[in-house]
Amino acid sequence: MPAASVSSGEPIRVAVIGYGYWGPNLVRNFSGLDGCAVTAVCDLDAEVLEAVARRYPSVRTTDDATALLRGDDIDAVAIATPVSTHHRLARQVIESGRHVLIEKPMTSTAEEARDLIAMAEAAGVVLMVDHTFLYTGAVRKIRELLDSGEVGTPFYFDSERISLGLLQQDINVIWDLAPHDLSILQYLFDESPESLQAVGYRHVGSGREEMATLNLHYPGGLHAQVRVSWLSPVKVRRTLLGGSRRMIVYDDVEPSEKIRVYDKGVALDLDGEEVTPLKPIYRAGDVHIPTLDRTEALQVEAAHFLECIRDGVRPLTGGPEGLAVVEWLEAADRSLAAGGTFVSLES
């Protein structure tokens, strides 16, 4: 079926499949954008559909994705369902000629991700992955600081994403939480890691890792560590990024001052003198708190999705970016199965 075309001046009509945790946010943000109309919602829960009908009386509701796609009132579909269903549902959407936005992680396997990329390219539709944090003002500012050279040579990326989270039935904590940080790593740094190690722990009998640590080594010397957990009494969303010139603390839980840039570090030399363990040269300067774009990240992402559909812009978080994250997640599973050994990420 040919790709859905959108006439100039006509709104892009969006449907959402899955109205559980993330679906309401998708409907709210797409509904609030000029040049867009949410026309349909699909969910298996009848009570959920009743709630949608009360809040959005003009939106068509159904519990059947196939029936949803038979309607002629849809140009694009956002999928917010368990990852095990992403490939099947996205295939249906692409086969119907509609553009598709898929919640992270893109698919359960890299093979499934490659299949969707090939299908979308052949069908001429936009395939985009919901790596929301790349659309935050904070992450975009960090990339700007890296590009400007203010950070200098990056040494390490250390992130912690923990809370008393929902124990997922079909994925472990790495697949649930780490895609956020892996997509941020992919966006911030132009080189790719060469190897990855995953160490995980099971404590409450869920059968899947509820706590885990990832270590990623880069050929240029950068080291990244990502810690994730469903078993923390407090919610922490903090990233440290250290470089030769500046260090950055990114605290996503902080309501206003999410980024602090520290003029601190260890100098590489002073008047030609080499740094030694017995003679470190420390630098301590000012702390800078940059002004950030405070627009909701999902609103920025939804607007970008529409831009890609209407103007043919390449998605910032397209199929290839989604595939890379899934490949790293698969590598994490291999490392877990091998007792936490480093596995190669080089193709």
Topology:
Layout: E1 12-17, H1 23-31, E2 36-42, H2 46-55, E3 60-62, H3 65-70, E4 76-79, H4 86-95, E5 99-103, H5 110-123, E6 127-130, H6 137-148, E7 154-162, H7 173-188, E8 195-201, E9 211-217, E10 223-229, E11 236-243, E12 247-251, E13 259-266, E14 269-270, E15 273-274, E16 282-288, H8 297-311, H9 319-337, E17 343-344
Parallel strand pairs: 1-2, 1-4, 2-3, 4-5, 5-6, 7-10
Antiparallel strand pairs: 7-11, 8-9, 8-17, 9-10, 11-12, 12-13, 13-16, 14-15
State the gist of this model.
This protein has 347 residues and is of the alpha/beta class.
Write a structural description.
With 347 residues, this protein is an alpha/beta fold. The protein has 2 domains: 12-125, NAD(P)-binding Rossmann-like Domain (Rossmann fold); 134-294 and 329-344, 2-Layer Sandwich (Dihydrodipicolinate Reductase, domain 2), CATH 3.30.360.10. Helix content is 32%, strand content 27%. The chain contains 9 helices and 17 strands. It has helices spanning 23-31, 46-55, 65-70, 86-95, 110-123, 137-148, 173-188, 297-311, 319-337, and strands at 12-17, 36-42, 60-62, 76-79, 99-103, 127-130, 154-162, 195-201, 211-217, 223-229, 236-243, 247-251, 259-266, 269-270, 273-274, 282-288, 343-344. Strands 16-13-12-11-7-10-9-8-17 form a 9-stranded mixed beta sheet. The protein has a 6-stranded parallel beta sheet with strand order 3-2-1-4-5-6, with helices on both faces. A two-stranded antiparallel sheet has the order 14-15. Helix 4 (86-95) links the parallel strand 4 and strand 5. Helix 7 crosses helix 9 (319-337). The longest helix has 19 residues, at 319-337.
